[in-house]
Design goal:
By secondary structure, this protein is an alpha/beta fold. It is built from 8 helices and 12 strands. The strands form 2 sheets. An 8-stranded mixed sheet has the order 5-4-3-2-1-10-11-12, with helices on both faces.
Length: about 270
Amino acid sequence: MRAVKVLYADVDGTMVGPLGNLLWDSQRTPTLAAAEALVRAAREGLEVVALTGRARAAMFEFARVLGLQSWICELGGIRIYDRGETVVHEHGAFPGSGVPTAELHRAVDLLLESYPGRLEDHSPWNAARESSFLLRGEVSTEEAEERLAAAGFGWATLVDNGVIPRRYENLTEVERVRAYHLLPRGVSKVASVAGDRAYRALEREETALVGDAAADLDCRGEVGRCFLVRNGLDKDPSLAWVLEPDSGVEVTKATHGEGFAEVVHQLLDDR
């Protein structure tokens, strides 16, 4: 068995606790678990690559403080290497030139008009985005994409990135709020992991992934080991399939950053 060299780690709901706090557990009690795991990973040569829906600008300072050399943001739309020295953009099926956000703005307007009380801008997390937009609410992604295609946005897709464990007053028709990414077809966490592995010339068995949502688990065929932090299963019962023996997913005992730490220690102990 080859030692894992790279761990792709989702950020919100995985590496960090509530409100994006690295030093909180799921109960908002102070913990050093994630920080200590990052230190051990750095010392023992396991590179942690953040794999997130956050925008590039929002990730830069976070990555700098945590000492990350590389990260993947906007759900795979941008890959960053050498602490920002090298930037790789992935625009998928976007037919235009430049960044896709100008055209995506028009697609967002269409969706918001189509689903009043069911979908809204995931403010304030859309500032400085280049490849995608974040929305929140509860809709059928298949129906939404049919509306997009009919309006000339067949190159765009709406990706479900899991449950947001809170309510929003304007989403009056929503029972369980979910986060969605609107981005060009062909852009995904799966494609970004494949692209990163090719860039680094890594075998599948030399990589692992930990996340908290379906968009993370979709990557399981691209990595040697795939983990779901326990809180991902707790907040989204639709992920119960991971408990099947042949799911290809390992569920941590701990939640959030402590679950992330559990994965880091397991990978290093298994070397």
